[in-house]
Amino acid sequence: MPPEPIPHASPTALSGYAATGRLDELRATEYRHLDTAGQVYLDYAGAGVAAHAQVREHHDRLLAGLYGNPHSESPTSTAAGSLVESARRAVLDFFRADPSEYTVVFTPNATGACRLVGEAYDFGHAAPLVLTWDNHNSVNGIREYARTAGAPVRYVPLSGPELRVADSDLVTVLDSGRGGLGRRWRRGRRGLFAYPAQSNFSGVQHPLGWVELAHQHGYDVLLDAAAFAPTNRLDLSVVRPEFVCLSWYKLFGYPTGVGALLARRDALARLRRPWFAGGTIRAVSVQGDWHRSMDDESAFEDGTLNFLSIPDVEFGLRWLGSIGVDLVHSRVGLLTEWLLERLTTLRHASGQPLVQVYGPTTGAGRGGTVTFNLRDPDGTLVDERLVARESAEAGFSLRTGCFCNPGAGERAFGISRESVRRRLLARVDTIDDYLAALRLPTGGAVRVSFGLASTATDAERFVAFVQSTYLNRGVGAETPLPPRLRC
C-alpha cells in the first residue's frame, strides 16, 4: 500500500484545480478500478487507462451484432466495414481535419504508422531526413530507410538543461540536410522532417509552428503526436503536417493493437510501397508478374484490419471529447507544476538536492511527463533499478530506463559522441559493461506521467513515498539489483 501523503500544501489548493473536479467524479465511478488494490498509476505516457464505459460498449456491441472480415460483400462484412469507415470519419472530426485534405490509415500502433512512411518515402540525395535528438526509436528507425536510399540524415541537437531545440539550430540543420543544395529543392525533390510534438523523455513540447517552418524550407513533416494528443488539442485545420502518427491506447487506454497514420492525401499519393499484401491491391497476377494497388488509404492497410476493435476508437474519441481534452490538459498541467515544485525543493540534511530533473522544471512549454533521478546525501545517483523495485513494492506503476529515446538520454546524461562510437563499444556484452564503458553510474532515469484519471492524491502519495524512502537515506544500496528492461 502506498504511503499516505505527508501534510503539506495539496494540489487541490491550486487555483483552477476545483474547476477540474469532474475528473475526480469520473475517477470514483468510471475509473474506480484504479483504486481497488490501493495502487497508484503514474505511467500515462506508457499507456492510458480504459474507462468502464469503454469496456461495456465493446461487450454490448459484440453481443448485439455479427461482424465479419470487411473484404467481402456479405452482410457481416458490410456491417464491419461500415463501422470501420465510421471510425475513420470520427478520427478526422476529432482532429478537425478536412476529409478532402486528410485521410486515416489504421495501423497496429504509432510505430506501424512510422514504418509506413519510412519504407515508402522517396528518400534520396536531394531528399534528406532531418530528426530532432529526442525522437522515439520508432521515428529514429526511419533513418535506416533513408540511408539505404542514399539520403543525408541529420539530427537537430538539444541544448540547455531544459533539453529544448533552438529555432536557429533547426533552421541550420534543415538547410544543411540538403548537402549544400540550397534552394534547388524548389525545382526538385522534397525531404522529410520528423519530430515529436511532445518528448516522451523530458515532456518538452516543441512548437507546432515548426511544421510551417519546415514547409518553407521544402520539407514534408512527420509529426509524432503519440505523447502529445492524450492531453493536448491537435487541430489539423490550423497545423497541417503531411503525416501524424498515433497510438489510441495512449489517448484513452483501449483498444491496444490499433494506431493510425493521419496523412494528407497529396502526400500519401507520393508514397511508393516496396511490397504489397492482402487487402492493399485491386488486382494481381502470378504468371503476369504484375499488381495494381488500391487508390486510397486501403493500399497501406495490410491484411485484415482489426475490425472488432477499430469501432472502439470511435467510442473512445467520443468519450474523450465528452470529457474535454482542454479539461484534461488543465488537470495534468496543475499536477505537473505541483510535482515539479515539490521535487525540486526536496533536500537532504547535507544540503544536497534529492531530485535531479531532466527537462523543464516549471510547467511552461511542457506536458505531464516528468523524468528525473534521485541522489543520495553525498550526491551520488541512486540506481534507477533500485527505484523501480522499491516503487513497485510500494504499489506505484511508473517507468524507469531510457524510454526508447536514446538521443534525449544521451544529452541528459552528458554522453559524448566519441564515447558511443561503435569501435569503443565493440566488446560490450551487457548493460553493466555498457555503463562501465561510458563511465556512467546508472543507465536510465525515473519517469512519472499524469493523464486523464490522475488525481491530487496520486501526486501526493508519490511525493510521500520519495520523501519517506530516499530523503536522508544512507549512501549506496547493499541489495542486488534486478536486470534492466529493454531500452
Strand content: 5-15%
Can you name the CATH architecture of the largest domain? 3-Layer(aba) Sandwich
Instruction: Please identify which CATH superfamily of the largest domain we are dealing with.
Output: Type I PLP-dependent aspartate aminotransferase-like (Major domain)
Structural class: alpha/beta
Question: Order of strands across the widest beta sheet?
Answer: 2-8-7-6-5-3-4
Number of helices: 16
CATH class of the largest domain: Alpha Beta
What does the model show?
The structure is a single chain. It is built from 16 helices and 15 strands. The protein is an alpha/beta fold and 487 residues long. The chain has 2 domains: 11-52 and 324-402 and 444-470, Aspartate Aminotransferase, domain 1, CATH 3.90.1150; 78-322, Aspartate Aminotransferase, domain 2.
Layout: helices, strands, pairs:
Elements: H1 21-29, E1 40-41, H2 52-64, H3 75-94, E2 102-107, H4 110-120, E3 129-132, H5 137-140, H6 142-148, E4 153-156, H7 167-176, E5 191-196, H8 210-216, E6 219-224, E7 243-247, H9 248-252, E8 259-264, H10 265-270, E9 281-285, E10 290-293, H11 310-323, H12 325-345, E11 355-358, E12 369-374, H13 384-393, E13 396-397, E14 399-401, H14 406-412, H15 431-438, E15 445-449, H16 456-470
Parallel strand pairs: 1-13, 3-4, 3-5, 5-6, 6-7
Antiparallel strand pairs: 2-8, 7-8, 9-10, 11-12, 12-15, 14-15
Helix pairs in contact: 2-11, 3-11, 4-6, 12-16
